[in-house]
Amino acid sequence: MQIGLKISGILLLGIANSSVSLASPYTDLEQQVMELTSRVIELEHRLDTFESPQVVQMIEQSTNPTNPGDSLDQANWNRLKVGYSYDEVRELVGEPVRVKKGTMEFWYYSDRKLDSPFVKFIFKKVHSWKSGLAK
């Protein structure tokens, strides 16, 4: 009987120790969840601030071309994006002086040879460009 009590005591002690060791990972997980929840709340607040009507209006004003269609305005060239269509390019930097068609299409914005500002199209979408203007 004494042997049975000793074994039971050892088993209970072992179970108690294992439950203590099992409790600590859960505490760590709870702490991590609390920290992540706090970070999500902070990020949502920052996103709400960024998407506020005042910030959205400020961004829209800064991205609207000041001289649409003017190929001499560096700000227009800065607004070009890969994937723009012919119409979007015309709206920003205007009509080209010269067009070279082929597998790729090039729109040149001056008669200067190597230094000419250009837009390169592949599959009728902007692939790359060079403004030729000082930044």
Q: Nutshell version of this structure?
A:
The protein is α+β, with helices and mostly antiparallel strands and 135 residues long. The chain has 4 helices and 4 strands; from the N terminus they run H-H-H-H-E-E-E-E. It has a 4-stranded antiparallel sheet with strand order 1-2-3-4, with no helix packed on it.
What can you tell me about this protein's structure?
The protein has 135 residues and is of the alpha+beta class. It folds into 2 domains: 2-60; 67-130, Beta-lactamase Inhibitory Protein, Chain:B, domain 1, CATH 3.30.1450. 55% of the residues lie in helices and 13% in strands. The protein is built from 4 helices and 4 strands. A 4-stranded antiparallel sheet has the order 1-2-3-4, with no helix packed on it. The longest helix is centred in the first third of the chain and has 49 residues, at 2-50. It starts with a helix and ends in a 5-residue tail after the last strand.
Percent in helix: 40-55%
CATH third-level topology of the largest domain: Beta-lactamase Inhibitory Protein, Chain:B, domain 1
- Return residue spans where pLDDT drops below 50 for at least 5 consecutive residues: none
Whole-number average pLDDT?
79
**In what range is the share of β-strand residues?**
5-15%
Total number of helical segments? 4
Strand order of the largest sheet: 1-2-3-4
Helical/strand content category: alpha+beta
What would CATH call the architecture of the largest domain?
Answer: 2-Layer Sandwich
**Strands, total number:** 4
CATH hierarchy, class of the largest domain: Alpha Beta
Characterize the main sheet. Answer: 4 strands, antiparallel
Order of helices and strands: HHHHEEEE
